């Protein structure tokens, strides 16, 4: 036994899988009984559907014959009489009217008592005058007939009969009458029949096969048997499943499956539908189903135990190797695995041990280099940014001092004092703040002070517009991110374009992120210049014009990406002569902020 086990352990994977498949195939043979069961049930369903189609075809033939007999009987009675001439007459004298009405009533009596299943006869002449007779005075058949009768529909049928069912299960046939000689419309005749006259056709079908038989007229309305109050038949009619192109439709209702067969007679005069409960068809196979399911369950249990035992032995080494690979992918720390056999998995384990050691050494060296590089890059940006914070744009300082000097001579000390105050406040805020992030409200206060100086300098030439969502003012943002953008807007919105300049600052939330916008109506930029501004590494150097502002914008963009990832940063939209909009996308960070 030990030798056999050792052979299986050291065997090739192909041999192991072959032995496993052999066991599985042997177990699968036991499931043939289950397949036979389902094939048997399918055969019963197919045979029942074919038999159902045959039955409803016989019903259709009988139904067509009986209804045609009634139609022909009424037509022959009309043809062999002078009713057409009487209906065409429009007498004026009272005596002529009496003889005309008497003749029509005699015709109705003769036709009504011609067959025992006739319940009422009804005639409407061309002037809509009504004549009627009925067997039983208890039920007013003719009143119900007039409520259901559509005279225009019957005339449009040009002599073809219209069949429908009344509320008391009385069946009605109505057709238009035309003069034999002139083919001129002279009136309508309608006959009420007992429901058993047609219902007896389907009585024998219920004895042969369980299921509902429905007969629909040309308007797809239920004709016989009685009203369908609920169940599969009502569901079938409500869902209009009889309109299926195949004539056969399987459907579920109330947790049970049904088979339906539909037969349409000539000119779609009738639709005969049979609905069969599949559970009733297969009720005799319960014992087969019990033994089949029992055999399948036992076979599946045995097959599962055998497969689990065999696969566990085959894949034990693979699972250990996979577990080691998973741990290695998480922390790149690898403990050597001792191979349990000398098959392909054992050789693969040995190769993985060697590969993992080399990857671990390589990863450590690359990781250290990457961290050092990232720290150096971030530190460089921090130095650039702090240097940028420590200095003010010479162009701005020059204009401010020049404005102070000019106003000192012309306007007096009040505005000069305001300029000096704002400039001192601006310098204190730009130099005195510690840390890399601050609340958005403080950043906006800094920008308001910065723009107030320019408002005094440029006067009515500059218009400021703020649209700030107050709910976001507590969010923390990187320090000194709006000043380079506002300075860029002023340089291109005021100094390079005559007329009134508009500077607009927007703070809002979009897609779960914080969005800051600085827009102007300045000279704008071409697409190539926008690309060069955000991706200077492609072009080698920064654009020499307005280099200070460009460096500030690039630093803002890089700093945001380092802090929050590539999904955040700046986006610039600009059109020459129309202005520029710079959008800053940041994550929404609560007041506690991130680690600086």
Automatic annotation (TrEMBL):
| Cellular localisation | Cell membrane
| Molecular function GO labels | phosphorelay sensor kinase activity
Q: What is this protein called?
A: HAMP domain-containing protein
> What residue ranges are annotated as transmembrane?
21-39, 290-310
Keywords, sorted A to Z: Cell membrane, Kinase, Membrane, Phosphoprotein, Transferase, Transmembrane, Transmembrane helix
InterPro entries in the cross-refs = Bact_2-comp_sensor_kinase, HAMP_dom, HATPase_C_sf, HATPase_dom, Sig_transdc_His_kin_internal
All residue ranges annotated as the HAMP domain in the record: 312-364
Q: Which PROSITE patterns match?
A: HAMP (PS50885)
Kindly give the SMART domains that the UniProt entry links to this protein: HAMP (SM00304), HATPase_c (SM00387)
Give the bilayer topology. Multi-pass membrane protein
Q: Which Pfam families would you find in this protein's record?
A: HAMP, HATPase_c, His_kinase
């Amino acid at each position: 036994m030990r030798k056999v086990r050792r052979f299986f352990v050291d065997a090739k994977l192909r041999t192991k899988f072959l032995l496993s498949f052999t066991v599985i195939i042997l177990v699968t043979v036991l499931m043939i009984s289950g397949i036979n069961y389902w094939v048997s049930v399918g055969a019963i369903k197919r045979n029942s559907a074919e038999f159902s189609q045959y039955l409803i075809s016989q019903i259709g033939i009988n139904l067509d014959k009986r209804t045609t007999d009634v139609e022909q009987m009424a037509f022959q009675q009309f043809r062999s009489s002078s009713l057409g001439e009487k209906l065409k007459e429009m007498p004026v004298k009272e005596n002529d009217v009496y003889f005309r009405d008497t003749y029509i009533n005699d015709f109705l009596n003769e036709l009504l008592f011609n067959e025992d299943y006739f319940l009422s006869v009804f005639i409407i002449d061309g002037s809509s005058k009504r004549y009627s007779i009925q067997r039983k005075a208890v039920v007013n058949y003719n009143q119900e007939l007039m409520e259901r009768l559509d005279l225009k529909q019957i005339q449009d049928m040009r002599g073809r009969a219209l069949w429908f069912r009344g509320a008391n299960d009385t069946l009605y046939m109505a057709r238009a009458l035309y003069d034999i000689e002139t083919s001129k419309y002279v009136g309508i005749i309608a006959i009420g029949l007992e429901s058993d006259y047609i219902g007896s056709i389907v009585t024998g079908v219920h004895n042969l096969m369980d299921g509902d038989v429905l007969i629909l007229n040309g308007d797809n309305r239920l004709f016989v048997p009685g009203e369908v109050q609920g169940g599969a038949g009502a569901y079938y009619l409500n869902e209009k499943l009889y309109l299926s192109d195949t004539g056969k439709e399987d459907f579920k209702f109330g947790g049970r499956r049904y088979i339906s067969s539909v037969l349409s007679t000539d000119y779609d005069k009738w639709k005969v539908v049979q609905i069969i409960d599949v559970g009733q068809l297969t009720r005799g196979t319960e014992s087969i189903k019990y033994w089949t399911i029992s055999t399948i369950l036992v076979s599946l249990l045995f097959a599962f135990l055998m497969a689990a035992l065999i696969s566990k032995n085959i894949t034990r080494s693979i699972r250990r190797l996979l577990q080691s690979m998973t741990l290695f992918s998480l922390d790149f720390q690898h403990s050597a695995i001792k191979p349990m056999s000398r098959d392909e998995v054992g050789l693969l384990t040995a190769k993985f041990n060697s590969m993992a050691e080399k990857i671990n050494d390589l990863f450590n060296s690359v990781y250290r280099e990457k961290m050092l590089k990232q720290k150096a890059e971030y530190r460089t940006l921090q130095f650039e940014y702090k240097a940028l914070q420590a200095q003010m744009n010479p162009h701005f300082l020059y204009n401010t001092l020049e404005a102070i000097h000019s106003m000192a001579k012309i306007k007096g000390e009040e505005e000069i004092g305001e300029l000096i105050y704002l400039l001192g406040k601006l310098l204190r805020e730009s130099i005195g703040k510690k840390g890399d992030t601050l609340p958005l409200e403080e950043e906006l206060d800094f920008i308001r002070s910065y723009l107030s100086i320019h408002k005094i300098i440029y006067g009515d030439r500059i218009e400021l517009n703020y649209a700030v969502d107050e709910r976001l003012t507590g969010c923390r943002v990187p320090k000194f991110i709006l000043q380079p953008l506002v300075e860029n807007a002023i340089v291109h919105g005021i100094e390079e374009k005559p007329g009134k300049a508009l500077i607009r600052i927007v703070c809002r939330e979009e897609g779960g992120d914080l969005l800051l916008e600085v827009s102007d109506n300045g000279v704008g930029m071409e697409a190539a210049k926008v690309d060069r501004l955000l991706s200077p590494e492609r072009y080698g150097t920064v654009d020499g014009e307005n280099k200070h502002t460009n460096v500030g914008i690039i630093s803002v963009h890089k700093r945001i990406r380092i802090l929050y990832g590539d999904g955040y940063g700046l986006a610039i939209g600009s059109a020459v002569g129309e202005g520029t909009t710079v959008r800053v996308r940041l994550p929404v960070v609560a007041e506690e902020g991130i680690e600086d």
